[in-house]
Design a protein that fits this description.
Layout (H helix, E strand, L loop, with lengths): L5 E2 L2 H6 L9 H14 L4 E7 L5 E6 L6 H6 L5 E2 L20 H7 L2 E7 L6 E7 L2 E8 L4 E7 L6 H5 L4 H16 L6 E6 L2 E6 L4 H9 L7 E7 L4 E7 L11 E5 L2 E3 L2 H9 L13 E6 L5 E2 L10 E2 L2 H16 L49 H14 L8 H6 L20 E3 L3 E6 L2 E6 H16 L7 E10 L2 H17 L2 E6 L2 E7 L8 H13 L1 H4 L4 H13 L9 H12 L14 E4 L1 H8 L1
Parallel strand pairs: 2-9, 13-15
Antiparallel strand pairs: 1-4, 2-3, 3-8, 5-6, 5-8, 6-7, 9-10, 11-12, 12-15, 13-14, 16-17, 18-19, 19-20, 20-24, 21-23, 22-23
This protein binds adenosine-5'-diphosphate and magnesium ion.
Magnesium ion binds next to helix 2.
Length: about 600
């Protein structure tokens, strides 16, 4: 059996900024759990009494310590994890400062039992306020058990600063989750006052998330994965319909370490802009892997703050990967990140057939518009998203797949017979149709809102799409609205409106975007001005977006309108060529898909 602990030379010790390690029970818990992980444990038990005031015990089945390591480990700068200053740039362990046990032993009564695999007997050591009270051979299983009793027994001031048990315990639980989440292969349990709070088996990341937050949680997430040179991304981001009013479950880990990084959080959240309402927050669980030498974890003593050498590029990749997970596929056409960086799109699900679906909807009909967004490169990715996001469980039913109306090429002369089932309207609000992945129930108003919104957004800047009105329309507004309208004229012009002020609060509209026409122009513009006024719409900070949203809302086919089958068919086709078809621009679900499995479930 060999001793593995060194005392750091002063030069290295001084390079490591000293910090307060233990300020509350949760920080001791964090250090002990991390030590157990560094020891290679596969099972870690955390036992807490009175929110950590009287007992914090961590039992692991890791490598254990020799007799003398068991003594030395409580000395400051005692660590087995780095030997030279250079090692600081390649840290793969959680700890490396060699301060945690020393700090804990200074402020508590510690009892440690430890045995290495190849020694017959283990060792037991009792330390109180840094003084070794006792060390003796002890018969125990391989691994280490450290019991920290009566924390701050010798610092009454610190003890009196502790919050009530419920608060201290919630800190401990959060620490536990942050450690357990990325180390999903390791089994963890947590007992508090004899009650089992968590019992997590080793498994995969999704199982760990479900083990901590509940099974239903995993249905609320999309998978995110990206493998690039500067960063590898793996994990889950919340579906936009499950956003919360509070920043709840938001976790980013770098090399299995929880980090707080406002800019990377913003990268994820920005991918949701326009998909979710104001002041709501998505959940996310994102594991990043970065070359340790491109990372500075040494800037904060508790190491939740890190610095990336490649921060900008990681930001861009993370945002793009999140957008991709959410089905916002414009990333393929926008150069969002260094073009020299290769993004591997994650592999298609096993049952996904990358075949171009043929279209068989009535090609002569398109009641809403003659123009369709021309983004042919996006379709296949969307198709992929669509299948994987909704879980294409329907194996090999190509009949149905053929009917998925994804083709965007206008084919006016194609007189192929419609051999698919026509969609059905329900209550003049919903459209029911079949897809490869199940039965889709689509909200006609919200779907149309999405279609119009994306068309308007795509139209920005292309004057060509303005449609001259046969008879220009004169409109009059009140003084305040006229002023606002004047302000909005440049944006409206970009969308295809040609509006000229005639003075005295009067305007003449001589052209509109193709979807709009001359009906209800007055109320449409009034509404747009109103929406613009209300802070609700300014959340995007982008006037153009807010105008498009407002016009799309206003122009979208209403809920009590009876659509003809061909109109429905066309609406479905247009919806599925959108970038984000499953959510309306105001953040509501456009459709609901009932898969084969769920149907079977319901039929039981
Ligand atoms: P650090 O983790 O920064 O090295 P610590 O004070 O946390 O410093 O621990 C000191 C040393 O004690 C570690 O480097 C390790 O060698 C040993 N050690 C601590 N906890 C355990 C454990 N649970 N199992 C095995 N060795 C441990
Ligand atoms: Mg440590």
């Amino acid at each position: 059996m060999s001793d593995i602990i060194n005392i750091l030379p002063d030069s290295v010790a001084n390079q490591i900024a000293a910090g307060e390690v233990v300020d509350r029970p949760a920080s001791a818990v964090k250090e002990l759990l991390e030590n157990a992980l560094d020891a290679g444990a596969t099972h870690i038990q955390l036992i807490v009494k009175d929110a950590g005031r009287t007992l914090i015990q961590v039992i692991d089945d890791g490598c254990g310590m020799s007799d003398s390591d068991a003594r030395i480990c409580f000395e400051r700068h005692a660590t087995s994890k780095i030997r030279r200053a250079d090692d600081l740039f390649d840290i793969k362990t959680m700890g490396f400062r060699g301060e945690a046990l020393a700090s804990i032993a200074a402020v508590a009564q510690v009892e440690m039992k430890s045995r290495q695999r190849d020694s017959e007997l283990g060792t037991q050591i009792v330390i109180e306020g840094s003084d070794v009270k006792e060390q003796s051979p002890y018969s125990c299983p391989t691994g280490t058990s450290i019991a920290v009793k009566n924390l701050f027994f010798n610092i009454p001031a610190r003890r009196s600063f502790l919050k009530k048990d419920s608060i201290e315990m919630s800190h401990i639980e959060e620490v536990f989750r942050r450690v357990a989440l990325p180390n999903y292969k390791v089994a963890f349990s947590l007992h508090h006052n004899g009650r089992l709070l968590y019992d997590l088996k080793g498994g995969n990341f999704a199982q760990r998330i479900a083990g901590i937050f509940g099974k239903s949680f995993s249905e609320r997430l999309y998978h995110i994965q990206e493998s690039t040179e500067p960063v590898k991304i793996y994990g889950y981001v919340g579906k936009s319909e499950f956003v919360r009013r509070t920043r709840g479950e938001q976790y980013i880990f770098v090399n299995e370490r929880f980090i707080k990084h406002p800019s990377l959080s913003a990268a994820i959240e920005r991918a949701y802009s326009e998909l979710i309402p104001e002041r709501t927050y998505p959940s996310y669980f994102v594991l990043l892997n970065v070359d340790p030498s491109r990372l500075d974890v040494n800037i904060h003593p508790t190491k939740t703050e890190v610095r990336f050498l490649d921060e900008n590029i990681i930001f861009a990749i993370l945002r793009a990967a999140t957008k991709k997970a959410l089905g916002q596929f414009q990333l393929a056409t926008e150069i969002e990140f260094n073009p020299s960086t290769e993004i591997d799109f994650s592999p298609a699900p096993k049952d996904y057939t990358p075949k171009q679906p043929k279209v068989s909807y009535n090609p002569n009909y398109n009641p809403f518009s003659s123009t369709r967004p021309s983004q042919p490169t996006q379709r296949n990715e969307y198709e992929h998203f669509f299948d994987s996001a909704i879980g294409a469980r329907n194996n090999g039913n190509d009949e149905v797949a053929q009917r998925l109306p994804l083709d965007e090429e206008p084919r006016p002369n194609d007189d192929a017979a419609t051999n698919g089932t026509a969609p059905i309207g329900y209550q003049n609000r919903f459209i029911i149709t079949t897809l490869k992945s199940g039965i889709a129930i689509i909200d006609q108003h919200r779907a149309h809102e999405r279609i119009l919104y994306e068309r308007l957004m795509a139209r920005k800047g292309s004057q060509a799409s303005a449609q001259q009105l046969l008879f220009p329309v004169n409109l009059r507004f009140n003084a305040a609205d006229s002023e606002l309208l004047n302000e909005l004229l440049p944006e409206l012009e970009q969308l295809g409106f040609i509006i000229s002020p005639l003075g005295q609060n009067t305007f003449v509209v001589s052209a509109t975007p193709p979807d709009i026409g001359d009906k209800e122009l007055q109320s449409l513009l009034e509404q747009t001005i109103n929406d613009y006024k209300s802070s609700m719409l300014q959340k995007f900070g982008d006037r153009n977006q807010s105008i498009c949203l407002s016009i799309a809302k206003r122009m979208a086919v209403k809920s009590d309108t009876c659509l003809q089958p061909e109109e429905m068919q066309s609406l479905i086709a247009d919806l599925f060529s959108c970038k984000a078809p499953d959510i309306s621009p105001s953040g509501k679900r456009t459709m609901f898909i009932l898969g084969e499995k769920e149907l079977e479930e319901k039929m039981k």
